[in-house]
Amino acid sequence: MLSPSTFLFRLRLPGLIAAGILVGGLTLGSAVAQQALPSDGGAAGALRPGSVHLVARNDVAPGLSELRFDEAVPPTPGADQLLAVGPDGTMAAVASQIGPDPASLVLVSASGTLDQLVMPGLIGAGFAPDSRWLAVIDGSGSIWHVSADGASAQRWIDGPFIGQPIVEADGSVIALHVSSIEAPIMSRLVRIGPDGTVNQLADDQLVYGAQLMADGSIAYAAHRGSRLVMMRLSHGKPVQVADLGEDAIHAQLSPNADAVAFERHGGVFLQPMDGGSAALVADGASPRFAPDGLSILVDEPDGSAVFSRAGVAMAGLASQAAFARCVEDCEQ
Amino acid sequence: MSALSSFDFLRHGARPLLAVVMAIAGAVLMSAPALASDDYTLPFYDPGVSLNYGVDRDPRIGIQLDYTGKVWYDTATHPGRVYDNHSGLDYPMPVYSPVAAAKDGVVAETEGGYGTRQFGDFGNFVRLRHSDGRHTLYYHLASRADGGIAVSYNEDVIAGEKVGESGCSGICYGPHLHFEVMVDMDGDLVTSDPMFRRLWTTWPGRIPFRAAYVRENDADTVIVRRGYTIYHWVEFKNIGGRTWRPNIWPGRVVLGTWDPAQHDSMFAASDWTNDWIATRVDGVTAPDEVGRFTFGIRGAPGPGTYREDFNLDAQGAHWFNWDELGGFYVPIKVTQQIE
Hints:
- The complex is a heterodimer of chains A (332) and B (339).
- Chain A has 332 residues and is mainly beta.
- Chain A is 0% helix and 54% strand.
- Chain A is built from no helices and 30 strands.
- Chain A is globular.
- Chain B is built from one helix and 20 strands.
- Chain B has one helix at 14-31; strands spanning 64-65, 71-72, 89-92, 98-100, 105-111, 124-129, 134-141, 156-157, 162-165, 176-185, 188-192, 211-216, 222-225, 229-238, 253-257, 277-280, 290-298, 304-314, 318-319, 329-335.
- In chain B, β10 (176-185) and β11 form a beta hairpin.
- The longest helix of chain B has 18 residues, at 14-31.
- Chain B starts with 13 loop residues before the first helix and ends with a strand.
- At the A-B interface, β16 and β17 of A face α1, β5, β7, β10 and β11 of B.
């Protein structure tokens, strides 16, 4: 059973049909907002012909909500990816496909509304803390400001950037500036201020991902030589907190910084910070800690699963999933 | 201090950032010293592999400048030429195809943790640092667990040596090798276009190890008296991009038994290196030169007619293509008396 303080936002792919909103050429039920961007890459028709999207929210348990997202056409590799979830778990951003080709950014609200924007490719997205807008990285690595209601979308800054951007309360965005989107041999952690100024946050040449800690500090995983290290910026100075060795990927620091979860060769491991050795938690990929740090969400070939730190299975989901950052009192 | 790694210019905003990157990339792309055709070999062994996309020499979005000088004002892909902002050379090949070092160098970085076909922001790669200051990058490789990474961090490698196997990790829409030649600009690795001003889709260089049969001292059946040894030589032309050397390992070129490879030969003479290596190339043989291989054939088995197959092996790198060598073998007749 999940911790009561856990709010899990999950995205279910084909197999479910429920009440909701139908878009993509057909409309059923609620109104649909569909907007083609007035951009140089905003080609219509990025949503594949005949595709049908269906979304519905289902509160399956206290603190646990499910967002179901369905598509009538067979899924293709890299298609219909959950990009980001709003901090309070009431919104999600979904990409019809990842990559440089025109793609649909589907903004899903748990209240049942849905908007769709055609973007010139999609790589990643991150919600602002107030869920009112998103930073979206398009297929060429530019960052866009997109309002959560889909009413506006503006290209903000050219990159190229990759990964999942982190939006801070003041409107700054933390992102990875890369040398190349296809083969990012250099990937630098930067903060882009609300005025568009860009500052590099660490000297590491190949940063794989960053996360915002509860105290406002930043943790990131960097590749050095052939090893992955977990770093934390303390008063702007990078401090190594763990050396995860060769072939470790998708590392994430626990909320209270007492452990690192990472993936290696198809398994998810937990490396305690007290000097103990890494222990296998589960088979799977891309571990993410729950906000309380007590459970870990992992991707599986046919969905997702939640495990305790000791590796006890707590929930199995036939869907992509993500934890919302906060559970209750998100307004505060 | 590195002009770029300091990122001081970033404080001035994104447009200056883009302008600086464009200026540097443009300068490198336009003015980097041209490479000679044999400076770098192609990073694979299969002569059938061809270029799919080359470098976009114009860093601006929506403007593509390919290696021939043609410009496209669009963001569409142009197979055989370029796609927008592409930083390397894409060579389609099946997953698990061997990938070779394009030049002697040192392994500067490896990543093998991603799945062989794991789609995502990052993938598996090997990066080599070369003595001329350039770096080469081999991206989208198979996972280390699947044999995708064949070298270790800080290891010396030679041109033509296998560094890994291809895959489809990272941003990958079909198995291929992303090969890149980069210039070290004070710690920043900036893409250069090795095909600049060259209209060859197979550039840089050539397949590292290839050979063509030329002649041998006796193309007919070799007749040897039982218990005796006679000497035989065969010549092959080096049609690859890598110089053959007799005494540098890995990479020395030897004549070894074939079908099956490395089988113990009944005809191994006392001058053979071991039971399957008949000899090394007689001398240093540069591309386009002819190399000779001289070795003894001992009439060890009983009288009869035999056949021994041979192939060239660049040790530590890979075997040559036996068919390209003309399916080389030596027919041998062992007699009781000298005929």
